[in-house]
């Protein structure tokens, strides 16, 4: 007869032999920036789902908050678990930045300042990633990839002169229609 365990108020069936194995996450690579993107105290959200899941099933690891520490390591607010203890089993790890407590239950607002002349840290950055992880022997730390959600924007540029020339410079660059949107953090879909 199988037993059950309770994780964050959810009853999860255990295998008859042993509980789910703990997962360790090593890094979150941000589209070529590696860990250089994140600063101490940055927070991301993580979901661990069955491979190719739509995220509608009850999850053991639902919107876990992870904090980037001064030692360049990620610390989770809750223990992360594999969904199966079988070597070779696969899960989809969905991650997003910045962390928001109600993610997964509602669409997240995205606000990008239209005036980007002053750098504002990473406040206008939104990241999302889905990485398929394969369980190996032991607790080998896993790596995940995240991408910039706002990097695929099309910019319309007005030059300082009436016609662009070799010496013309950009007088002003505003992102007008992409200022407000919503993110479904389970699927990565963004509606502007």
Mean pLDDT: 75
Biggest sheet strand line-up? 3-10-9-7-4-5-6
Number of helices: 0
**What is the CA–CA distance across the termini?**
50 Å
SSE pattern, N- to C-terminal: EEEEEEEEEEEEEE
Helix and strand content put the structural class at: mainly beta
Strand content: 35-45%
Mind summarizing the main beta sheet? 7 strands, mixed
| Helix fraction by DSSP (H/I, runs of at least 4) | under 10%
Please tell me how large the radius of gyration is: 20 Å
The number of E-state strands comes to: 14
Uncertain residue ranges: 1-18
The coarse silhouette is elongated
Textual characterization of the structure:
Strand 9 and strand 10 form a beta hairpin. The strands form 4 sheets. The protein has a 7-stranded mixed sheet with strand order 3-10-9-7-4-5-6, with no helix packed on it. 0% of the residues lie in helices and 38% in strands. It has no helices and 14 strands. With 192 residues, the chain is an all-beta fold. It has strands at residues 4-7, 10-13, 25-30, 43-50, 61-68, 74-76, 90-97, 108-111, 127-134, 142-148, 158-159, 170-172, 180-184, 189-191. The model is unreliable at 1-18 (pLDDT under 50). It is elongated.
């Amino acid at each position: 007869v199988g037993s059950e365990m309770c994780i964050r108020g959810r009853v999860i069936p255990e295998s008859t032999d042993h509980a789910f194995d703990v997962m360790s996450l090593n890094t979150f690579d941000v589209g070529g920036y590696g860990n250089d993107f994140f600063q101490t105290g940055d927070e991301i959200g993580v979901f661990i789902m069955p491979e190719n899941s739509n995220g509608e099933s009850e999850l053991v690891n639902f919107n876990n908050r992870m904090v980037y520490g001064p030692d360049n390591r990620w610390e989770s607010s809750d223990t992360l678990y594999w969904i199966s203890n079988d070597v070779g089993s696969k899960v989809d790890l969905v991650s997003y930045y910045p962390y928001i407590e109600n993610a997964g239950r509602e669409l997240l607002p995205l606000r990008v300042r239209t005036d980007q002349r002053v750098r504002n840290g990473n406040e206008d950055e939104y990241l999302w990633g889905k990485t398929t992880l394969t369980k190996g022997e032991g607790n080998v730390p896993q790596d995940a990839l995240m991408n910039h959600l706002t990097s695929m924007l099309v910019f319309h540029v007005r030059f300082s002169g009436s016609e662009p020339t070799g010496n013309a410079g950009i007088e002003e660059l505003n992102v007008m229609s992409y200022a407000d949107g919503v993110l479904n953090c389970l699927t990565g879909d963004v509606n502007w």
